[in-house]
Write a structure and sequence with these properties.
single chain; about 400 residues; alpha/beta; Rossmann fold; 2 domains; 8-stranded mixed β-sheet; 6-stranded parallel β-sheet; 15 helices; about 25% strand; binds cytidine-5'-monophosphate
Amino acid sequence: MPQGSSILLIIGGGIAAYKSLELIRELKKRGCAVRAILTKAGHQFVTPLSVAALSGEKVFDDLFSLTDEVEMGHIQLSRSADLVVVAPATADLMAKMATGQASDLATTALLATDKRVLIAPAMNVRMWQHPATQRNLATLAGDGIAVVGPNSGDMACGEFGPGRMAEPLEIVAAIERLLDGASVSPPAPSLAGRHVLVTSGPTHEPIDPVRYLANRSSGKQGHAIAAAARRAGARVTLVSGPVAIADPAGVETIHVETAQQMLEAVERALPADIAVFAAAVADWRVASASGDKIKKAGGRAPALALTENPDILATIARHRQHRPALVVGFAAETANLVEHAQAKLASKGCDLIVANDVSLTGSGIAGGVMGADSNAVHLVSASGITTWPTLGKDEVATRLVQHFAALGAEWT
Ligand code: C5P
């Protein structure tokens, strides 16, 4: 991010406004100047005092007085920044932006600015999915407005799905990209015409009709990669184990339970140009699952004989007929991350390993990368190691897809 960049932050009225306070802190840490406009609804969620204390600047709102106009007109306010960021961008603000309304200070500044605008939408899942909001989103994208998020997950209103505002670090990363792109932002590398195959989530290996072996994978990272590849114009097939998150829009999603079924679905989906194996496939299954529920028998625990599951990544990376041009695996490690990833690169025969530093994000058992919203990764390939900072899983997905598209030139 260029030192001394200046951001005009418009805080709309949504519960996610509390995250905008964190966003101000992160931007200030990176040497940005932040001026904020608080909408009338925004006042219901955060106070001008907290915004002013964190930004170190006067907060502008609809009580914009004559003195303010003399010191700094609203036109100047909208143009003095390098970038205008709307976070949270409510359904109402998006609708007003899409129809060019100038009914208060925030919308007037958005209409008057000659700078790029980034919005971080946040709203109830039904409001987000409503055709009116999706129409407004398409209009805003057509106007050159950049968008970060929303993410999927539990919402403050008790529902589940897309609508959560992107995390502050994801918004910072999007701001960095826009600012580093100078005045003309380069178009994201496209995957149009490519077929991308992604595995995601855990597998469930049956013990008997009611019990199974599994792991804590949430599928968030794999699903985010599938969605990002779709956004980049690819045809995407997602083979997902049992997860509690929605199928990404526009992605052909095949639901499976076991590693064996996942392998079969992956083989059926070939050929593909890129295959990304983000699933946490169970290493073992019960050699012969019982057809009937296993009953307790006089205090004796049943002995479960395990047998190894097929390695889907290694199988596809060595596929004789249809090896994808780019095969990507994941490796979650707590120690000697890069060494293990390099060894895995060779043993699996893939082109790239995305290594998760699980030790950085949590303690292992229930915490950690599995189920979390952020991820710290290293990209390990024959040509070297690239380390990224801790980023939201959506941001990791977007960057990975850009990386794959950039590599495309090498494998066409
Ligand atoms: O060997 P390990 O499980 O650490 O390797 C992780 C990578 O291999 C991930 O990309 C995972 O999706 C893939 N994998 C697979 N089939 C397995 C085991 C792992 O595709 N049976």
